[in-house]
């Protein structure tokens, strides 16, 4: 689904058009966990089979997943993340951390991700240049799309 012609040009909107559909990020979650076979995806996500097949095709076509045959008779495939898919993993991790903080006030987390250092991962967004944790008040938006400012379209 394309954004309205007069809507702000936006990479967030473009990304959501690809992975913002129900089940798409859940497919990526499972594939990143190593559960890339169709039957595993159906079981762990709970998506209807036809919708799941459509999401998988779209993610493969977009270069987020690859498809590899693991059985010839019957022909069966498993899905693995591409580099582009792996680059979405931090999005999943920060979304999971947000859900843990704001949707589970009892602290009952359904999944804990352990980092290779042995500690439970608490993802943070940091500036690559200075290493500081990103805070809203430290950010300045600079629109690059012609005809747009932070507040909206500029006069023609």
Write structural notes for this entry.
This protein has 156 residues and is an alpha+beta fold. It folds into 2 domains: 9-87, Arc Repressor Mutant, subunit A; 88-136, no CATH class. Helices cover 37% and strands 12% of the residues. It has helices at residues 11-19, 24-32, 38-45, 49-61, 83-86, 89-103; strands at residues 65-72, 75-81, 148-149, 152-153. The strands form 2 sheets. It has a two-stranded antiparallel sheet. Strands 3-4 form a two-stranded antiparallel ribbon. The longest helix is centred in the middle third of the chain and has 15 residues, at 89-103. The protein is globular and about 60 Å long.
Corresponding CATH superfamily of the largest domain: Winged helix-like DNA-binding domain superfamily/Winged helix DNA-binding domain
Structural class: alpha+beta
Strand order, biggest sheet? 1-2
The Cα radius of gyration reads: 19 Å
> Which range does the strand content fall in?
5-15%
The percentage helix is 25-40%
- pLDDT averaged over residues: 94
The residue ranges in which pLDDT falls below 50 over 5 or more consecutive positions are: none
Number of helices: 6
Instruction: Fill in the CATH topology of the largest domain.
Output: Arc Repressor Mutant, subunit A
User: Could you give the order of the helices and strands?
Assistant: HHHHEEHHEE
CATH classification, class level of the largest domain: Mainly Alpha
Number of domains: 2
Q: Any idea what the CATH architecture of the largest domain is? A: Orthogonal Bundle
Kindly state the number of beta strands.
4
